């Protein structure tokens, strides 16, 4: 905190006490905008494609451009927040995200739409780690911190479902462009709150950006995300797939070596080598990869097999959102402070896996109430027990100089996990459908059955991701409840 006389030192805590829950609302709004944009455009894609006239081959880039920019720039976004101040970074991120959304919404062709989506990802990479870093430094009391992370985790976990619902409503009743224009409303609210409520954050002393590390990690993450995204279109044997994947692995390896040698590492390895933070990052990666088995393929099932409209599809995900919010709040506010993350996260992983296994039995005769809703609720409860405790554990006790980059690391794991999960599951699902039709006459009935086979394959693999998470998180997380250290997560600098 900046040096000041005794009267100011006495008043500062009162000002923080009156504003911290409003600050949480600002942070949650910014996070919701970033998370829902990963899914809100999905339902609008058919309308956008018909309006702008782009091919099926190119439509994947409307989704991929966002995750490509977001995932590859998250780490540098977190370090920028540490370098220039978190309030300044949040304001720049919100304004830039709004401008990018306006550009994409007004697009007259595919190229402008993809460019706007990529710019959304760039500014999202500033917003996401900054929001989590602000949450970490704003709430220091153990009980209040648990509640705040419960809210934040619920927003992060349910944002994809909210995007599906909102995208359906806007597409069906307004226009697909409003799936992008709606961000102007979110950004305006969050921006006004950030300017008024957030105190000025003094940059951390000694924080510098290492250029070689920045180039290698950005290039490595870009190559990994691009390689997995390209697999769905060109296949796993394509040079454009394995070449980028190999390049990504090489650059990430070089980046890790650099972090042990440079004076000012972009991602201090101490951030990830802590067992709880490392386990939390793995948990976020696995849960993000696995959850696409529901968000993506259940959307297809509801619309193409059961004949749901975009709005009805979005409404079908509401119970999932509710389950995630309840589980996030209870796990971080009641269970984790008492037992620690070690038993909570693996149990959540197991519940999510059970829900996904139940979804593998869906067919054309299944009904929502009897066959979709029960496993959807189980999956949502499990997801909430994973994401919120992992977010809290990933930033608990972190040094203030590393708060931004520590937050970015867990966001990076989530985004890269989601991108890899989308590409991998899409490829496996497409392969299952092709194998089912191999040597058969593709009648409408067989094509419909092949789609069900592809969905089932995706659910099985998603369940496998979560089953692996049960073992990894069960082994890595430390036993016992977290110890409250008032000096570990300092308050916002005034």
Short description:
The chain is mainly α and 494 residues long. It has two domains: 408 residues, Up-down Bundle (Growth Hormone, Chain: A), CATH 1.20.1250.20; 56 residues.
Say how many strands there are: 0
* Assigned CATH class of the largest domain: Mainly Alpha
Q: Which band does the percent of strand residues land in?
A: under 5%
Rg, nearest Å: 22 Å
Q: Measure the end-to-end span.
A: 6 Å
Reported for the largest beta sheet, the result is: none
Number of domains: 2
Which overall shape is indicated by the principal axes computed on the Cα atoms? globular
Labels describing this entry:
mainly alpha, Growth Hormone, Chain: A, 18 helices, disordered N terminus, disordered C terminus
């Amino acid at each position: 905190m900046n040096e000041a006389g005794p009267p100011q030192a006495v008043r500062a805590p009162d000002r923080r006490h009156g504003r911290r829950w409003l600050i949480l609302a600002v942070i949650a709004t910014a996070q919701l905008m970033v998370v829902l944009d990963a899914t809100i455009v999905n339902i609008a894609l058919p309308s956008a494609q018909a309006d702008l006239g782009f091919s099926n081959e190119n439509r994947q880039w409307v989704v991929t451009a966002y995750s490509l920019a977001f995932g590859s720039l998250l780490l540098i976004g977190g370090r920028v927040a540490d370098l220039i101040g978190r309030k300044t970074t949040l304001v720049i991120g919100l304004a830039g995200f709004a401008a990018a959304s306006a550009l994409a919404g007004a697009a007259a062709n595919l190229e402008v739409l993809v460019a706007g989506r990529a710019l959304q990802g760039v500014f999202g990479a500033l917003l996401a780690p900054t929001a989590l870093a602000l949450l970490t430094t704003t709430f220091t009391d153990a009980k209040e911190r648990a509640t705040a992370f419960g809210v934040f985790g619920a927003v992060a976990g349910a944002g994809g479902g909210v995007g599906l619902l909102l995208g359906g409503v806007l597409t069906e009743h307004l226009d697909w462009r409003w799936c992008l224009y709606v961000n102007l409303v979110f950004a305006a609210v969050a921006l006004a709150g950030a300017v008024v409520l957030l105190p000025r954050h003094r940059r951390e002393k000694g924080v510098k950006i290492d250029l070689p590390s920045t180039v290698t990690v950005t290039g490595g993450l870009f190559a990994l995300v691009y390689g997995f995204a390209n697999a769905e279109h060109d296949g796993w044997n394509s040079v454009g797939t394995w070449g980028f994947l190999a390049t990504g692995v090489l650059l990430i390896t070089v980046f890790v070596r650099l972090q042990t040698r440079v004076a000012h590492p972009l991602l201090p390895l101490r951030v990830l080598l802590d067992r709880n933070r490392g386990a939390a990052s793995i948990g976020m990666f696995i849960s993000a990869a696995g959850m696409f088995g529901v968000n993506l393929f259940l959307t297809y099932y509801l619309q193409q097999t059961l004949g749901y409209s975009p709005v009805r599809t979005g409404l079908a995900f509401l119970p999932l959102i509710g389950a995630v919010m309840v589980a996030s709040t209870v796990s971080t506010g009641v269970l984790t402070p008492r037992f620690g993350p070690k038993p909570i996260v693996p149990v959540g992983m197991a519940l999510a896996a059970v829900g996904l296994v139940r979804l593998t039995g869906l067919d054309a005769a299944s009904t929502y109430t009897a066959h979709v809703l029960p496993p959807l609720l189980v999956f949502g409860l499990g997801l909430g027990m994973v994401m919120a405790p992992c977010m809290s554990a990933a930033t608990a006790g972190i040094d203030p100089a590393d708060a931004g980059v520590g937050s970015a690391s867990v966001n990076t794991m989530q985004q890269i996990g989601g991108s890899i999960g989308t590409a991998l599951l899409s490829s496996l699902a497409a392969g299952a459908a092709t194998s089912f039709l191999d040597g058969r006459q593709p009648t409408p009935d067989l094509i419909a059955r092949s789609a069900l086979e592809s969905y089932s394959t995706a659910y099985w693999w998603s369940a496998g991701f979560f089953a692996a998470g049960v073992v990894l998180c069960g082994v890595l997380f430390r036993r016992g409840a977290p110890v409250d250290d008032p000096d570990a997560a300092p308050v916002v600098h005034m």
